[in-house]
Amino acid sequence: GTTVVIAQYYGAGRMDRLRDAVDTVYTFFTVSVVPITLVALLIAQPLLSLMRVQPDAMADARLYLLILSGGLIGTIGYNINAGILRGVGNTRASLLFLGISAVMNIVLDLVFVLRFHWGVAGVAIATIIAQFCSWVFGIFYINRVYREFAVRPFSFRFDRLLFRQIMRIGLPAGIQFASVSLGIMAIMSQINVFGTSYTAGYNVGNKLDSLAFLPIQSIAA
């Protein structure tokens, strides 16, 4: 939704309204990220129970999910920056930050798991550090290259009509992407009944399926 609105104003040369759009989406992010994180932390255990995670995997799964939920700020922040950059026609920068984040994630995985022996916690911590860095890199890049609409997380300038327009455009795509995730969760609740080895095998196959399906889904969006 942010991408479309920003692209419209950028194409029309209305930099004042583009500035308003960036301030609005970042104000919403600043205000909502803590409540969203708290909700994610609270529903982690009930969610795993609903998905019927086996007792021998429950402790690790819960720890992993709690750490990831605590680091949602980086995930959401990166996606907001990517939406802004796509709106002004710059897809290379967000792809570059994502690539750096992916490499950083792999390196930190190896360090935290093989060197420090942190296990599942190490994998989760590596993920949130990499995502947080990609978000911060995006802010520095936008503020340096696009100073006319530099990111100001604490400007607290909020345009209700603009936000309504962003939600009206973005919500259908959000529901589409969420429905796929919810469908996978529903399937996982059945898969988990067969035990952790079966679940692990399924997840490997599911990753391969995601690699094949994601480009098509992205083009459709």
Describe this structure in words.
By secondary structure, the chain is mainly α. The protein has eight helices and no strands. It is globular.
Summarize the structure.
By secondary structure, this protein is mainly alpha-helical. It has helices spanning 2-12, 15-50, 55-70, 72-87, 91-115, 119-145, 160-191, 196-220.
Give the overall shape: globular
What is the mean predicted local confidence, pLDDT?
93
Structural class: mainly alpha
Strand residues, percent:
under 5%
DSSP helix fraction: over 70%
Count every beta strand, where a strand is a DSSP E run of 2 or more residues.
0
Would you spell out the secondary-structure blueprint of this structure?
Layout (H helix, E strand, L loop, with lengths): L1 H11 L2 H36 L4 H16 L1 H16 L3 H25 L3 H27 L14 H32 L4 H25 L1
Helix pairs in contact: 1-2, 1-4, 2-3, 2-4, 2-7, 3-6, 4-5, 4-6, 5-6
Please give a handful of descriptors for the protein shown:
221 residues, mainly alpha, 85% helix, single chain, globular
